UniProtKB/TrEMBL annotation:
Gene3D superfamilies, per the entry: Mur ligase, C-terminal domain, Mur-like, catalytic domain, MurE/MurF, N-terminal domain
InterPro entries attached to this UniProt entry: Mur-like_cat_sf, Mur_ligase_C, Mur_ligase_C_dom_sf, Mur_ligase_cen, MurE/MurF_N, UDP-N-AcMur-Glu-dNH2Pim_ligase
Subcellular localization: Cytoplasm
Limits of the Mur ligase C-terminal domain: 342-469
Lineage: Bacteria, Pseudomonadati, Pseudomonadota, Candidatius Mariprofundia, Mariprofundales
Pathway annotation from the record: Cell wall biogenesis; peptidoglycan biosynthesis
GO biological process, one term: cell division
Top-rank taxon, per record: Bacteria
Principal location: cytoplasm
Protein's name according to its UniProt entry: UDP-N-acetylmuramoyl-L-alanyl-D-glutamate--2, 6-diaminopimelate ligase
Pfam families assigned to the protein according to its UniProt record, in alphabetical order: Mur_ligase_C, Mur_ligase_M
Keywords: Cell cycle, Cell division, Cell shape, Cell wall biogenesis/degradation, Ligase, Peptidoglycan synthesis
Entry's Gene Ontology cellular component terms: cytoplasm
Entry's family note: Belongs to the MurCDEF family. MurE subfamily.
Length: 503
């Protein structure tokens, strides 16, 4: 998907501005003569004749400027949401984002769309659950199923379109719903980020099911601390329940237990517990046992790692709750299910020595290293860093986790943005309790750090390169430079074993 496609959408047929405004907002005097809306955009650069320009609350400081630019581009009308805009064009004034969501449902003619939206929120696990849920629902349904989130708008594993954010803009969300209606798509599994909730990008979308995976430390700086972050997640889940949607949540998370609505369906670790709707246990890597009431099944050949076992259990309960899938049918839907790129992904298949993982929070890194420990016969090595201009509290926490759970640790750079990598590394080191349990290395050049770690691998060792996973860039001083942990690790691994490097 091009940037223009995420910032603008053309309609199937025109829509009267007056009919669009009816019962929702106030039209300015300039709208005495009705106009026909043929498309909509939320970026003035993509305005065209017949298009309405959508000015949202976040653009408040520049709304007038954007409206004027859209007018120069030939726009037909302005839709101002919670902002004051004066224009020679007709202006439709809306007070809230919820009204804007209703307007987009009307504009795209999706008021009666039957597509099920599954919203996955939580600190970690969103991408994996969305990916696996799409795959499982595709097996179960005769209709296609999509997902959207960190990896993009995914129509199929080989058809992934970039959407810019984990939770896309409100315009993109509604354009996606419109496309799903037109193409007969059963459902869309959406990652719902805290930013997406707080900025109301999901306004006007009625979620069939809300899924709450876990809570940890991430983006705290944007929500005034952990409690604000927690309340933001809870608000989405509670709103879904309030309009009659299903809620599936992780019973092993105390904060989720406290803030989830009364009608929540729970999954949890421990096969014989009675306080959950679906219990799970992983006896061997890649094998999952599920129990609901008196029924018990085994799911074989799932992705490695206890966290993936939990993700599959989450998907299993979602299928049971949202589609009334019997427990006995779960193995057929979940066996051989895949994991998304960069989530405990083996580098250079066959060696079983190097894995890349997106773990970039304390909770995710801890779970990743615990899972890796079960897979290694000897030493566990890890290369990781922390992003710049993001939650600083997690840096020493991740340092403590790495130094306690691994045998050899390389601290390196990971999207430093505008911060000095050495400063970030020093804050990571502050959490490493002395005397160190692990052997600590500081190598800020990520390529060299991965190379040193691969060179140190002995027979029976295992290396985790954590933090970036699928990401194809390194964010440095406002630039996104090309980068791939998988490619770099593969190159060093091939060189170590004297193999030909395949481009």
């Amino acid at each position: 998907m091009t940037n223009a496609q995420t910032r603008a959408a053309e309609l199937e047929e025109g829509f009267s501005l007056r009919a669009l405004a009816d019962g929702l907002g106030e039209l300015t005097a300039a709208a005495d003569d009705d106009v026909l809306i043929m498309g909509i955009c939320d970026d003035s650069r993509y305005a065209r004749p017949g298009y309405a320009m959508l000015c949202l609350p976040r653009s408040r400081a520049h709304a007038a400027e954007y409206a004027e630019a859209a007018c120069r581009q030939g726009a037909t009308a302005i839709i101002a949401v919670g902002v004051n805009v004066t224009s020679e064009l007709p202006v439709l004034k809306l007070k809230t984002m919820q009204q804007a969501g209703q307007l987009l449902r009307r504009l795209f003619r999706t008021e009666h769309a039957r597509t099920h939206f599954y919203g996955i929120t939580g600190t970690d696990g969103k991408t994996s659950v969305a990916w696996m849920l799409r795959e499982a629902l595709t097996r179960y349904q005769s209709q296609p199923v999509w997902s959207c989130g960190t990896l993009g708008w995914l129509r199929a594993p080989d058809d992934i379109l970039d959407i810019g954010n984990t939770t896309p803009s409100m315009l993109t969300m509604h354009a996606m719903l419109s496309s799903a209606r037109l193409e007969g798509v059963h459902g869309v599994a959406c990652e719902i980020s805290s930013h997406g909730i707080a900025q109301e990008r999901i306004a006007g979308i009625d979620f069939h099911t809300a899924i709450w995976t876990n809570m940890g430390h991430d983006h705290l700086q944007d929500h005034g601390g952990y409690q604000g972050y927690l309340q933001t997640k809870a608000a989405f889940v509670q709103a879904t329940a309030a309009h009659g949607g299903n809620v599936v949540a992780n019973a092993d998370q105390p904060d989720i237990r406290e803030h989830a609505p009364d009608n929540t369906c729970w999954y949890g670790h421990g096969l014989y517990r009675k306080d959950v709707d679906l219990a799970w246990e992983q006896e061997l890597p890649g094998v999952l046992r599920l129990k609901s009431g008196d029924e018990e099944v085994v799911i074989e050949d799932i992705p490695l790692g206890d966290f993936h076992a939990e993700n599959v259990a989450c998907v299993a309960l979602t299928l049971m709750v949202s589609m009334a899938v019997p427990v006995t049918e779960l193995p057929a839907l979940l066996e051989h299910i895949s994991a998304p790129p960069g989530r405990m992904q083996e580098v250079t298949a066959g060696y079983g020595q190097v894995y890349i993982d997106y773990a970039h929070t304390p909770e995710a890194l801890e779970r990743c290293l615990h899972a890796a420990r079960k897979l290694t016969r000897k030493r566990l090595l890890v290369v990781f860093g922390c992003g710049g201009e993001r939650d600083r509290e997690k840096r020493p926490q991740m340092g403590a986790i790495a130094s306690e759970l691994a045998d050899l640790v390389w601290i390196t750079s990971d999207n430093p943005r505008g911060e000095m990598p050495a400063v970030i590394a020093s804050e990571i080191e502050q959490g490493m309790r002395q005397p160190y349990v692990a052997e600590i290395h500081l190598q800020l050049d990520r390529d060299k750090a991965i190379g040193e770690a691969v060179a140190a691998l002995a027979d029976g060792d295992l290396l985790i390169v954590a933090g970036k996973g699928h990401e194809a860039y390194m964010d440095v001083c406002g630039q996104r430079l090309p980068w791939s942990d998988e490619a770099v690790a593969s190159r060093h691994l091939h060189c170590k074993h004297g193999l030909e490097i395949v481009a």
